[in-house]
Amino acid sequence: MSVNARTVSAGGALDTLRAGWIAQKAGALTASWMLHGRPGVGKTELVRSLSEEIGATLFDIRLTTIEPQDLRGLPYYDHATQRTVWYRPEDLPDDPDTPAILFLDELTAASPYLQPTVYGLLQERRVGRHLLPGNVFIVAAGNTVDDGAVAYEMGSALSDRLIHLHVSANAKDWLETYAVDRALHPNVTAFLRARPDLLDTTEESLRRGDMIACTPRSWERVSDIVNAISDRHLRDTMIAGTIGTSPAAEFARVAEELNAMITVDELIATPRANRMPLYPDTMNGLVALIYGLVAHAEAETLPDVIDAMADIRTLKSNSALPLSELTSFGFELLIRKALTSGLEEAFRGSASYAAYVQERQAQGVR
Asked: Which of 140, 168, 196 corresponds to the end of one domain?
C-alpha cells in the first residue's frame, strides 16, 4: 500500500509539525501525526528538534521493544472496591503543566498484536482509563515495506487516525537547516554540496542488493568519525563501513584536498590584512571554508567570521570562481545561524557586512 501523502523534506516536516503544535496549543486542532520515510532520513531527529524548540519533554517509545501491557500498565486488585486497577506506565506523559511529545517510533514495525493498544492513544489520547493531558503532542514514525526495513502494512483502521507526512531526504534542506545547526564537519557538508545525490542512496543500494547505503544519519556518523579519528587508514575503514566503499572513496579524495588547506582557526588568528593568500583556491575548498566559518561563529568570534566571509568576494587569485555567489551563500547560512542564536546584533555593527550590502544594492541585488 503506497503512502499517498505529500512528500516533504525534513525541514518541511518540522515546519508542519510546528504549525500543528501551535494549533493544538491554541485549542484549534488536536491530531496525531505519522512520519513515513526511509531509515536514516531524519524522522527521529526532527521530532527531537521540535521538542527542544518548544521546550517539551520527549517520551520516545520504540514500539518494537514493548508488549501491549507495557502501554496499558500492570493490574492490581483493590480489595476495598473489589476491582482490578491499573498502574500507569511511566513512559506515558501525565504532567498537565509541562509540554510533552509522545513519540511512537517504528509504528509500522510493531507487532500487529500491539496496534489495537496504540489505536486508543492515537485517536482518543488514552490507554484504558489513562488519559493524556492536553499539552501532549503525539507523533508516530515508521518505514514502509518498500524501504528494505522490517514493516507491516498499515491497515485503514490505524491510518485513518493519523495525519500523514512522507519525509524524504533533500540535500539543500538538510545542509542548510540540519547540518549547519549540528555543526557537522566541513568536509562532510562541502562534499555533499558538490554531490547532493549521495545524501541518500537507499533506493539504489536496494536495487543493487548492497547492505550499506548513504543516508542523512550515516553522514552524521561520518562527521563524528572525521572529528574523532586522526589515523587516516582507520578513519577511511570506518567511513567505508558507514556509507559503502564507493562513496567513501570519493569522499576520501575530497577530504584529502580539504585537509591540506588552512583551518578556520588559523585564518581567523591571522591579521585580516594578511589573510588573502591563505584562502583556498578551489570550489570545494571555499565551500568547506564557508561551512567551517559558520560552525565557528559564536558571540565572541562572529565579528571576525563576518569579516572573513565578506572578504571571499574580493579574492583576486580566485577570479574564475563564482565568488559573489559563494559570499551570498555563506552569509545566508551565517545570518540564519545568528538569528536562531540571538547574535544578529553583530551584523548591525559590522563595517564589512555594511560594505557587502551596499555593494549588492549598487548592483541591483537585494
From this structure: 168
Residues spanned by the domain of 239: 170-257
- Considering the chain, what is the average pLDDT of its residues? 88
pLDDT digits (tens, 9 = 90+) for 324-353: 999 999 999 999 889 888 899 999 989 999
Mean pLDDT across the stretch 190-215? Answer: 92
In SS3 terms, the chain reads as: CCCCCCEEEHHHHHHHHHHHHHHHHCCCCCCEEEEECCCCCCHHHHHHHHHHHHCCEEEEEEHHHCCHHHHHCEEEEECCCCEEEEECCCCCCCCCCCCEEEEEECHHHCCCCCHHHHHHHHHHCEECCEECCCCEEEEEEECCHHHCCCCCCCCHHHHCCCEEEEEECCHHHHHHHHHCCCCCCHHHHHHHHHCHHHCCCHHHHHHHCCCCCCCHHHHHHHHHHHHHCCCHHHHHHHHHHHHCHHHHHHHHHHHHHHHCCCCHHHHHHCCHHHCHHHCCCCHHHHHHHHHHHHHHCCCCCHHHHHHHHHHHHHCCCCCCCCHHHHHHHHHHHHHHHHHHHCCCHHHHCCHHHHHHHHHHHHCCCC
The residue out of 150, 168, 186 marking a domain boundary is: 168
Query: What global pTM score does this model have?
Result: 0.78
pLDDT for residue 134 is more than 90? yes
